[in-house]
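quick one before i forget lol
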Amino acid sequence: MKESILVLGTRGIPNVPGGVESHCQSLYPLLVKKYDLDITVTARKPYVPYSESVYEGVKLKALPTVTNKSLEAPLHSFLAALYAIKTGADIVHVHAIGSGLVIPLLRLFGKKVIFTHHSQNYDHQKWGKLAKFILRLGEKWAMKYSSEVIVISDFMQNLMAEKYGRKDTHLIFNGVHEPQLPQPSKINEYLSKYNLDPRGYVVAVGRFSQEKGLDVLLEAYKLSGIKKTLVLVGDSDHATEYSTKLKQTAKETDNVVLTGFLSGEELHSIFSQADTFVLPSFSEGLPIALLEAMSFSLPAIVSDIPANKAVHLKDDCYFKCGDSQDLADKLVKTIDNPLVSYAEYLKNYDWDLIAEQTYDVYKQSVMKK
């Protein structure tokens, strides 16, 4: 396949925090390596240190935007769409519904558009009425005008068929890599940095925004009375009233550690030595953080939202979303449990398989008139 591919809808790669960003960082180098594709990933200048670069064979191009949570994705997507038109990209792969608004423009200029639906972002509490309207419109246009649509869960596939009659979507899961454990000396170094003991802490990973439910976790942690440390890995892209209050509450609560955003060896070290993983989200697509925790065999406690239920964990892994007392009870029952083998679960989340499935979607889009 000789067609050039441009990617938009991500803050950038590599090592930019976020689920879409992690997805793109894993997927596109594999597509280049396995199929020798010509792929350019557009990035947002505030999040990356380059104007142009190459990452594992993937071309990178940073374009300007504004650091405003409501405007940065639509504005950057518009500029990236113009860049795709200017440079003559044959296929444009659009990620996330906030970027769906530019799909009619791309189609008008004859581009094949692949759209990946990661999450119903309009369910996030942080968005106002206008932002939610724009996100819903982005989803609607993405479903109506995209050449091909990829969804990352069977729940999302059924929902898009029900809402928009789009019954030809491709179900391609998010993926997770085989865990790469750092050397024991490095693990000990990272644990010492935060004064942590192996299997002596509970970990949660996520952006400090309302839909991630970390305030519910903090309340549950206090109600549970457990003695293990609570480690919150993450931060907010833009300081908000919620993120500021969350950090203040965490600092005022005994045995809570804030690490900020982590990646690579440091994140793997924290995952590998945790006792339990918690995901208290109100809204998700298919959470990569949960898949990563599973790859390290951690006992998991997750909210019972449809996206988390789509992973098909055992019933006792789920708590009632938003219910801090139910989560507290689950914490008490789960800590000090043995590690869990998720080998069968994770067979569907192999990045080599995902790259192959995505390549097949690209070929299918090219074959269509």
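fyi The first strand starts at residue 4 and ends at 8.
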